[in-house]
Amino acid sequence: MGTTTVSRARIEPILFHTINGIFMLLLAIVTLYPFLHTLTISFNEGNDALRGGIYLWPRSWSLQNYKAIFISGTIYHAAWISVARTLTITVLGVFLTSMLAYTLAQPQYIFRKIIGLIFVLTMYFNAGLIPNYFLIKSLGLLNNFWVYVFPGMVSAFNLIVIRTYIRTLPSGLVESAKMDGAGDFTIFVRIILPLCTPVLATIALFIAVGSWNSWFDTFLYASSDLKLSTLQYEMMKLLGSTMNSNNDPGLLAGANTNQTKAMVTPASIRAAITIVAAVPILFVYPFLQRYFIVGMNLGSVKE
After folding, report:
1. 293: pLDDT confidence band, cut at 50, 70 and 90?
2. What would the pLDDT profile of 234-257 be if each residue is shown by its tens digit?
3. Does 34 map to a domain?
4. Rounded CA gap, 158 and 234, in Å?
5. How would you write 79-134 as a 3-class SS string?
6. The domain spanning residue 242 has which CATH number?
């Protein structure tokens, strides 16, 4: 009896880890396959891809899909605008949202509940597209770079996450700092911000991904100024022009009469656009992954 119990105690952990490993491997394959398939299509000649049967390796290698994207000179300036708007709103958004969250986390602040309620209501009620447009216009932000920054600089969701995280910090840290003569801003910058690194990295990732992938605000508020066009908006226009090009299944991309005409299709262009849009985030995410996991776990715990 004792031998059977010992044997079972040894086998169960091995069996569990084996099954768990197989399951996680299958999950990784299911998760990665769509991206790898998209990457493969982006490097495959467009018309050939229409035949199907392409999975994880291009059948007919071609860079025409990427040439069709970068052949326009405006794409580089648009990429710079996207980088500038993403960095600006991420830095300002994280700093200002965390500052407001610190204020609302202080129990002695008498207006913390009503201000918090106002922010929560914005998560459920919205004025709508037309009133927002007229608000942006009245503020003089149409065709202005700051239209990418000011409207979404403080998010109610991000505010709640950071405030919840700050409430988990020991209150004695703030009290001892005040006894030493430190002001609220000094406490916030030198004590609260360093301790909030995990949740701030999480929020920074949220803001950066949302800003980088945004194109609709460019369409609404800055489409008449080419100098303010963003990478996502330019690629959206490229995809639209490809799909509507005389109902032709392919679009000529950089071929001449002396060469084999390399064609791109809406499907291949869409794949290349997806890769171009995702690569910057893929480079950033690994550096924030460990903070992202810790920040979401701690920032979601309610007292």
Report:
1. low
2. 888 877 776 665 444 444 444 333
3. no
4. 29
5. HHHHHHHHHHHHHHHHHHHHHHHHHHCCCCCCCHHHHHHHHHHCCCCCCCHHHHHH
6. 1.10.3720.10
